[in-house]
Every structure is written in C-alpha cells, then in structure tokens.
Amino acid sequence: MADTLKGIYPPLTTPFIDDEVSFDNLVLNLLRYENKLLPGYVLFGSNGESAFLTRDEKLQIVVKVREHTKRILIAGTGLDSIKETIYLTNDAAERGANYALIITPSFFKSEMKHHNFLNYYTRVADSIMIPLIIYNVPKFTNVNIDSESIIELSSHPNIIGLKDSTENPSRISEISAKVDSAFKLIVGTASILYTGILSGAIGGILALANIAPDQCLQIFNFIRERNFEKALEIQNRMIPVNRAVTSKFGVAGLKAAMDLLGYFGGHPRLPLEPLSEAQLIELKMILKKASLIE
Amino acid sequence: MADTLKGIYPPLTTPFIDDEVSFDNLVLNLLRYENKLLPGYVLFGSNGESAFLTRDEKLQIVVKVREHTKRILIAGTGLDSIKETIYLTNDAAERGANYALIITPSFFKSEMKHHNFLNYYTRVADSIMIPLIIYNVPKFTNVNIDSESIIELSSHPNIIGLKDSTENPSRISEISAKVDSAFKLIVGTASILYTGILSGAIGGILALANIAPDQCLQIFNFIRERNFEKALEIQNRMIPVNRAVTSKFGVAGLKAAMDLLGYFGGHPRLPLEPLSEAQLIELKMILKKASLIE
Amino acid sequence: MADTLKGIYPPLTTPFIDDEVSFDNLVLNLLRYENKLLPGYVLFGSNGESAFLTRDEKLQIVVKVREHTKRILIAGTGLDSIKETIYLTNDAAERGANYALIITPSFFKSEMKHHNFLNYYTRVADSIMIPLIIYNVPKFTNVNIDSESIIELSSHPNIIGLKDSTENPSRISEISAKVDSAFKLIVGTASILYTGILSGAIGGILALANIAPDQCLQIFNFIRERNFEKALEIQNRMIPVNRAVTSKFGVAGLKAAMDLLGYFGGHPRLPLEPLSEAQLIELKMILKKASLIE
Amino acid sequence: MADTLKGIYPPLTTPFIDDEVSFDNLVLNLLRYENKLLPGYVLFGSNGESAFLTRDEKLQIVVKVREHTKRILIAGTGLDSIKETIYLTNDAAERGANYALIITPSFFKSEMKHHNFLNYYTRVADSIMIPLIIYNVPKFTNVNIDSESIIELSSHPNIIGLKDSTENPSRISEISAKVDSAFKLIVGTASILYTGILSGAIGGILALANIAPDQCLQIFNFIRERNFEKALEIQNRMIPVNRAVTSKFGVAGLKAAMDLLGYFGGHPRLPLEPLSEAQLIELKMILKKASLIE
Q: What span, in angstroms and rounded, lies between the C-alpha atoms of C232 and A230?
C-alpha cells in the first residue's frame, strides 16, 4: 500500500525553541499524527521552513522522525545546485527518507525552460537512491514548470510523481490524461483537494493536514465513496482556514493554529515573525467559524 | 428556463473584413449556433475584441444579433468609467441585451480594493435596466476581485452572477458556499468547466464554445448525468485546443480555428495580427489531435 | 519655442464636485499655474482620471482650458480602439489640443509586441491632425513598449516624442542615442527628472508639478546650469513627496496635497475614494518634511 | 584606498570544464583582470552561478583567487538561512574574503517586509567577521527591499553598503540623501552606471566588467572629470552589450562573450545551457556594433 502514495500527507512544520530546532516537540507532534490514518509525512517542505534550516538540521530531522515512525517519509531535498541536491538526497535516504520531493530550480527564473527542467530532473533522478517527486510551487519560486516537461519526465524510471501547488486542477487532469497511470499526481494545497482528486490526483500534501488531518481525510474519503456533496461541504468549510494558514498568515499562522489545536506550533524561525495579537484574534475567529475550535 | 442562465454560452467573435465589422458574417455564424442547444450568447466580450470596437459598432452588433435570435444576449458593456458603463449598458438593453457582463475596473490596478469594487458595482447596478453579471478576468485586467467583495455584492438585487475567468475553481466553491443559491456562478474558461461545475458553477462562457460547442455541451451534460469519467475524458481532450485558442494564440487563434471548422473567423482587428503560417500549422495539428478536424 | 516641448508640464487633475466635473475649479487651478513658467499642460492624462471621464467631458475640458490659456495643450486621447482614438484625438484637436499623448494599447497585454505597436501607432499617427507623443506607463497598463519599437516609430513624421513613466532612465539614454535629435524624450515621473534630463530627456510631465511646480522647475533649471549638486538636493527632497502623490496614495493623495497647497483638489471620482484621516496626517507630515507646507 | 570601495568590480564568472569548476581558467581570467585598474572582484555573485555551486566549491574559489591577488574580494555568501549565511561567510572570511555580499532572503517572498529585513540583516551582521554589503536583485529574488529598511540598516556598524541591481537610480539618490556619507552605494547593472554615479553611487559591480572592463572604467572616470557627454556616449554604446550579457542571454551569453573577447568563458553549469548557434551569431553582431570585436 505504501507504494501507491495514496492519501493525505502533512508537511511537518519544524518546531523551534529560542530559534533552535526542538526535536522533542517535533516528535510529540509526530506521535499525535501517528493516531491518524495518514500514510506518511513530508519533512522540511516549504512549510517546514526548509529555507531556514542548515544541512545538518535537515539530516537530524530525518533521523529523529524515522526513529518514531514506520510510515512513508518524503524529504524536501531540492536545491538549485544539482550536486548539492544529489548529496543531500542520498544522505537523507541513508537516514530513512523514502522519497525525495524536489522543488523546481528557480534562481535564474527567466531561463528555467523546458530543456533546463529536463536537464535538472534527469541528472538528479539518475543519481539519487530514492524515487523523485517533482515539486511545483510558483508562489515561492516564481517558476511554473510546464505540462510538457512533466509528461516527458514522467517516463524516467526514477521520477514517480508530481506535487503541484498551483490552484489550477486543470493541470492535474491534463497531465493525468497523458502520463502512465503509475505516475502519481499529488495536490499541494487543500483549496484544490476536492477538484484535484476529481481530476486524477491520488492524494494531497497539505499544510492544512497539520491542523485538520481528520477533515482532509474526510474530504478524501467522501470523494472515494462518490459522496461529492459531503466532500464539497467540508472542503468549503476548510477553505478560509486553509487560506489563513497559507497565503494570509503563512507559516506563522500555521504554527499559531497548531498551538490553538493542541500541537506544538511555536514561532517561525527568524527572519519570520510570529503573528501579532490582532492577527491571532482573526485566526481564532476563522478557526471557530470552521468549528475547529470552540 | 432562460432565467436560470444554466448552460454553455459562446462569447461571439466579431468578424472583420478589411478591418470593418462584417455583420453578415456575424449573422452567418449565429445561425449555425442556433442549431445547437446553447441558451444564449455573449456579445463583445473580451474575445469579441470589445476593446477595439467603437460604441456605435457595439450597439449595432446588439441590433443585428437580436434580429436573428430569441435567445439570451449578454452584452460586455463594462468600462472603467461608471457613467459610460451605465449609458452603454442601457443603450444595449434598449436594443435587446438581456444581461450586462461588467468587467472589473482596472486602470488604477493597485487601488482597486474591496471598497472600490463595492462603489463601482453598486453604482452601476443601481442605474442599469438589466441584471448585472460581474466579470473577473485577471489575465486581461491584472485585477482579481476578492471573494468577500463578490459575496457582499451578491446581495444587491440587480447583481445576479459572476463570470470568473481564473483557472481556480476553489473560488467557485468558496463563493458558492456563501451566496444565495440564486446567484449564478459561471466559469469563464473551458479548462475549468469540469471542475467548476463540480464546484457549484451553473454554466460556462467559453471561447472554446465558438469552435467546439458540442464538446462543451457534452462535458456539461455528462456531469449532470454523473458520468464523471466521460466528462473528464472530453475535457482532457479539449484542454490543448482551449489553450490554443486562448493563452497560446489568442483571438487570432480562435478565429483561425473558426475558419478551419466552417465558421467565419477572419483576421482579428488591428493592432492584432492573424496567425503566421507556422502557427497555423501548429493549430491544425492541435485540432486534428483533438479530432475536431481530419 | 513652444515647438521644442522643453520644460515641465503638469498633467492637470480633474476637479469633481458631487462626482461631476467642476470646470470652474479646473480654471481656477489653471490660472494659478499660468503664473509659473510652465510651457503647457496635459489634459486628462492618467492623473486626470481619464479612465473615469466620458468622451463629452474630455472634450469640454479641452474647450474650457483653451479659453483660458495660450500655452501648449497635450491631450490624453489614447484608447485601445484605433478608431475611437482617431475620432477623439481629432475632436480634441479641433477644440484646441496641440499634441496627442497616446497610451500604449494594453487590453491584450501578452500580445502587445513589436508589430502590434507599429500597427497601432502608425495607423493612429497617419490619421490624426496633431502630432503624437507615445505614452509608456507600465504601472497602469502592464505593457512596456520596447526601445526598438520606439526607435522605429520615431521616424514617422507625425510621431514626435515619448513620455516614459518607468523609473528607468537608461531607456531614455538608449533611445536618445538612436533617434533623431528632434524626437522629444519626456520623463513621466519626478523620481527620474534629474537622471532623465542627464540622460537626454528634454522635459517632464509630472504629477508632482501639480503641487510643486517651482521645485520641478528648479531641478530642471539647475541641471541646465550644470549645478548638479543643487538639482540633486531638491530632487532628493521631493522624492518622498512624489511617491506620496503617486504610488503611495495615488490620485487621492495628489488631490489632497493640492488642497493643502491652496489649489482645488477635492475627491477623486468613484470608484476611487478620498484619503482616510490617517493617510491625510501622513501626507501632511511628508509635505512638511519637504518644506512644502509649514 | 581599498576601504572606499570606489570603482568597478567584475563579478567573476565561474569557469566549468565537463561541468566541474576549472580553477585554472578562473586564475587565467583573474590574471588578465589584474592588468586593469579594478580595485577588486566579486566571487560567486549571481553571475558566478553561486546557485549551482556547492559550499566546498565556493570556499575553494576564495582560496584560489586569494592566492593570486591582493585586491579586494567580495564574496556572495548570502542564503535564506541566517545560520548557514553566517557559517559560510566566516569560512570565506578566513580564506581571504574582505566583504560579504548578502542577497535579500526571498523564499517566503510575500512575507519579506521591513521587520524581516531588519531581523535578517542585523542577525547576520552581528555574527560575521567581515563587513556586510546588502544585495538587492529583484529580477532573481522577486523581492525588492525598501529604502526605509536600507536607511535603518545603514546605521549598523557592520553593514557598510548596498549593491542595488534594479534599474532605478532614484533609489540610489533617495538613499544617498538619508544615510551617512560613509555608507557605500554600488550599482549592480551597467545600464545605470552613468545615472547611478550621478545620483550618489561610488562604483559598480557589473557583469559587463567581465568583458568590457576598460569601457566601464572610462564611464566611471569621465563622470569624475565631469565630462558627461563622453561618459554618456560610452554608456549608450554599451547598453545593448550589457543587455545581451544579462537579461537577453543570461550567464550563457556573458560566458560566450568572454570567449569571444579572449577570456575563458565556457558553458554555464547545468541546468543552464550554452547559447544556440543563432544566439551566438546575434551576440557577435551586438559586440561588433559596439566595437568590442571586429
């Protein structure tokens, strides 16, 4: 079952105390998620503040999490440098990561075109020990990998899927119509969980799953039971929450929501800052309206 | 039934001969569409090259089309100026337009915020003789009206719907969950026809419906019969065609495709230019692959 | 001397009372500007809220202003439609406009390329009775006409200049090096008045000149006297003011500043709104710091 | 003299042979630059393909270059992670780097605001052994640090300057008017070398200086002699060249031009690709037109 990658994966946030990684709290959160029917976790994805972690911290996170779970671990090991990406991925694999989630290279934005994506992903996939999932997230990279590149890359034996964090599910359906059915399409934001699954996605890597794993699972399961009305109803209730913990309040909002829901959220790492009092009040109202807190 | 606005509406292109409006060819196209189960038409929408038409030409188009159909006519009468919008809309209404499709004001992009949208749409809706449909099309306006504004405006008695031309169907589901069920949500691009309808839209105003009305109707009808697989299959086949006649080749591509499919397409108006030979060949291949031509 | 277009031109704001054009106040402002060594005025430019004016209102403005001045009048008559642009320009010319300031067409943003600019400007220039000044203002149009197009168009006998409202003076120097010296380059924002003149511009059409005409003239004159230090000093003092009445507070800010400086500013037209109390206080502080008010 | 940072600095490209750093060719290029009156060099800046280098490769570059020059070395050691930035900077400093050029953090683009810039730069500056130069380059980061942040940061004893790679020299003049005169403003692109120096910049870090160091020095020196006409003439001749080796053809173009001019350029590192034949021909024509090659 693990191999199907079906289901909902939370991209774990990285807890900090005094601006240093708190592995204890990472494990405490993990143990709560182990009670849910989540097939696995993403480590140091965008919301894991990967950008602010050192190489050593990333590897330690793999070690600590692997000590406490047998589930699938997907590690966010992509960097602009092909060499560094390969080294980091293989080091993470040796410590227990099962898949590598590789963000599109993006420093030279205007030059990242079809051939460059093929160059990059082929080189990386050829040299890493674990399967590669392409990660497309224009809101952070200002790069949007085209469908043609994905389709072409999908035939590489070690490139097994795509996490797409645009809000455009027609990308999912278009790609899904043209790739082998074994290629895994994963939505990267809860706002298109419903439409994405209906368009051919097999699961979601969702910031929202850090705070509302049950609701994400319900949407997923209701769709599989073809109870679309119920799925849509929950999805609609979650949209303002999802926006609050992503575009509106960012990682700081996601972590504050975790604190409100009994997980350890804490502050984001510098240079990010925690929510202001006013933002926190607004966040509470949004969670209340969605019946996540009382 | 007309009042439900359910179904598929082609935004009619405006034929030109020697850079002047050819009303004869407009009517010839119209008569072909009258054979399809299309509830109505959009006149001088974006793809009708509204931006290049004079006020008089717009009004003449309403007159000519009304002479040859009893179906719903939705006129694209929105301009930045509230005054001009009201005058033009009422003149179009007197000539037979049933609804006004009013694009978001956009000249002062960075200043178009919640209050400004409320100001604009309330003023216009108060003073026009026909119901108003809000038209959101960021790819042309660089303005994206927020859901909150839509929801607030939906309570105005003369604002009856939204055409949303983003590719993000979560906007549809989110708004649909918060507005009165009589408020009509219409997708503005065929790439989200399938997911949009599944998210609460009641129809589509689709450039693609100018060249593939049958396929658009099939997608729409298969969804209503809950035959999602079939709907998705046709949608996926149409996505490359839709892209070709919108983002890839623009109005010139749409018109060239019309010519290839037996309608009168012709050239776009200056300053736009017809497709190059190479583009035309590419377009033919795309239409062939989608089985629209042989 | 008029023909050189050298110097500083305020793009006159359009006063409104109860959301209707107040010609009386327009004339009152004008008479104050007549005391300054300004060679002329721009009528219904971007800051004249052209986007919100009807065709009739624009023509009346030409008439009223022409009744009270013998100076150069540059009318902002550009629209996406070539036909409407020609009609409006010629009507304005008959009423006393000396030059037409023609904004780049922009509705089909992604399709406005070299050939389309040539098509558009050549057609318009061929058919209007007064000389044409190209107007490039990406912050409102999201279109940035390329230097090559400008250089090619500069050889048209009726295209006599460019107003460039980017903040990039290397465009000025690059174009200036390649066009006939009779082609007039005009900066469109006070933030590059100093560097623009040093790069080959012969003047400026500046929102700032509505409220600080003396300072704009001083910058201009100090440069001509090669007193660069003094010019730069005044320019630097004016930059925060210029930002306040353009990108920061928009037309509402410009009009509020006019009120504070003894002109008639008033409210912008709907859907724009006047400044809030807090914004007004901030604006006053900015004007005070720049020694424009006490 | 070194401390003034006045003058022209080439951001050295990184030569690759078979996709591996060629230190020999790096040194060969360096020795040619040592014949010019360049006060120093930037190591692994954007055009040094820093994004594609490993940590070890960066440090080896410092070692190798320091072995062959006594001039100022400015190292591009900024990363999103504050921790990694500090470690890398101090390791580079120990190997001979004199200044750290620290790019704005940019992963969470929409959240990089005033406070976050203060957090980031203060933390980094507090902990590094060499002086910090802020590096603003929106074309790569999609982040544009505001003038207020720069002005506030300029009072930190270890933050000594700004490299600004926008094409907007009014940023230079505005900041220059508000910071201590010891704070060094450096333009980051040759297109505003002329206007930037006239606005208060004391030098330039210029991709163009890799291929046309003499011309860059001439522009700089003519301005200091107040021979503006001559400076502007050379600047205008260089603008098409500068565009070719930056926005038009990127690093591949810069390296191809180096090859044509007797330096070792070679291919950019994967995933970038060398110029096509057609691009190479165009590049040659541009260099010929500017009299850089025959």
A: 65
Asked whether the beta carbons of B172 and B149 are under 8 A apart, the reply is: no
Taking the C-alpha atoms of residue C211 and residue C208, their distance in angstroms, rounded to an integer, is 6
Contact C112, C104 (CB under 8 A): yes
- Tell the burial category of A6 from Cβ atoms under 10 Å away from its Cβ (0-12, 13-18, 19+): middle
Interface of C with B (CB under 8 A): 46, 51-55, 80-84, 87, 105, 107-112, 115-117, 119-120, 123, 139-140, 142, 247, 250-251, 269-273
Q: Shortest CB distance from C116 goes to which of B55, B140, B273? A: B273
pTM of the model: 0.96
**What digits encode the pLDDT tens for the residues D243-282?**
999 999 999 999 999 999 999 999 999 999 999 999 999 9
CB contact at 8 A, C271 and B102: no
Contact partners for chain B, using 3 or more CB pairs closer than 8 A, are A, C
Asked if chain A contacts chain C via 3 or more Cβ pairs within 8 Å, the reply is: no
CB contact under 8 A, A173 and B239: yes
For residue D12, give Cα distances in angstroms to A216, B85, B94, D27, D251.
Answer: 50, 57, 69, 10, 11
Structure-block tokens of residue B268: 């776009």
Residue carrying the six token digits 């020795």: D31
User: How far apart (Å, rounded) are the C-alpha atoms in residues C242 and A144?
Assistant: 36
On the CB side of B114, CA atoms within 13 Å amount to 5
Cα–Cα distance between A178 and A184 in angstroms, integer?
Answer: 12
Q: Contact A35/A67 with Cβ under 8 angstroms? A: no
> How far apart, in whole angstroms, are the C-alpha atoms of residue C188 and residue C164?
5
Size of interface B-C (CB pairs under 8 A): 95
Residue B66: name the closest of B119, B30, B105, B37 by CA. B30
Q: Which of A54, A87, A271 sits opposite D119 (nearest CB)?
A: A271
CA C54 to chain centre: 19
Distance of alpha carbon C231 from alpha carbon C245, whole angstroms: 20
| Interface D:C, ≥3 CB–CB pairs < 8 Å | yes
CA gap A210, A33 in Å, rounded: 8
* Cα three-residue angle B199-B202-B204, rounded to 5 degrees: 100
Which of B53, B112, B250 lies at the smallest CB-CB distance from C108? B250
DSSP D266: -
Task: Please give the helix or strand (H or E) that residue B255 lies within, else none.
Answer: helix B250-260
Contact partners for chain A, using 3 or more CB pairs closer than 8 A, are B, D
**B239-293: pLDDT as tens digits:** 999 999 999 999 999 999 999 999 999 999 999 999 999 999 999 999 999 999 9
The stretches in chain B having pLDDT less than 70 are 1-3
* Minimal C-alpha gap between C24 and chain D (Å): 37
User: Which residue blocks in C52-180 are alpha helix, DSSP H?
Assistant: 55-68, 82-94, 114-127, 138-141, 147-153, 169-176
Give the span between the Cα atoms of B288 and A292, in whole angstroms. Answer: 51
Task: Report ipTM (2 d.p.).
Answer: 0.96
DSSP B57-81: HHHHHHHHHHHH--SEEEE----S-
DSSP string, D81-100: -HHHHHHHHHHHHHTT--EE
Closest by CA to B164, choosing from B112, B101, B117, is: B101
CA distance C240 to chain D (A): 8
Q: Cβ C110–B251 below 8 Å, yes or no?
A: no
Set of chain A residues whose Cβ sits within 8 Å of the Cβ of D112:
271
